[in-house]
Design goal:
With 256 residues, the protein is an alpha+beta fold. The protein contains eleven helices and four strands; from the N terminus they run αβαβαβααβαααααα. It has a four-stranded mixed β-sheet with strand order 3-2-1-4.
Length: 256
Amino acid sequence: MAKFLPQLDSQTAFQLDFMPLLMAAVTDLQSQVTVLHSIYLNGSIAYRQATRGISDLNLTVVITSPLTVEDQRRIASVSQTLRRDYPVISAIDITWVLLDDVLSIAAIFKWGFWLKHCSVCLYGTNLSEQFGDFEPCWEIAKAFNYDIAIALVAIEQQIRRTKSISEYQYYCRCAGKKMLRSCFMLVAIYVDDWAYTDQQCADFFLTRYPDKATEIERLFVLINGPQVPKKASIFMLSQFGAWIVNEFNNIERKIG
């Protein structure tokens, strides 16, 4: 019998600390995005495991046509206002995707899976209902991990350039989370479950790669602190990051 991956709870109320933010975000996007189709919540707030003042607001917004320059200006203003008025979050990350791309057969393992198993619809027609349940497969891992090599190079460049402590800490957190998520993608095909949190990513990964426990501990330092010297974060990106990329490519050659 097929083992389908879990879906997020769409019925239970979100944590009270974040409800005013969510309502404001939906209202503001409704009023400012003329091509809005639907809004989805992702990340720790969607999992009901957010931490006040630390967690980000992660949204996926589906639009019916590309954003204009004016749309982008208004959206930037919305994001700035939300960050200022709701210090309950540390950052806002909005992913914009065209409706046609979501419904494309070619993107089913990315957007179909993402909306069905990693999102909660906050507004609009819930597109997740158009997709069946997904089973663990390498196509999903590839859809979410194909950019790992490029992403790690970009983050390393940002770390090298920045002179701001707050920016540096943010980039370290991004690097740690990206590598940790990619570690889970290496083993996702073998797991009849899905990792929604950093700790779940680590636990699933270490069941198959127990010799990488030290590297995982270092990733958690990048994510949570204390702050490490630049040479330490760059070392993790270049050394462990390279191992992740190489292991991903090895699996791709075997499974393809």
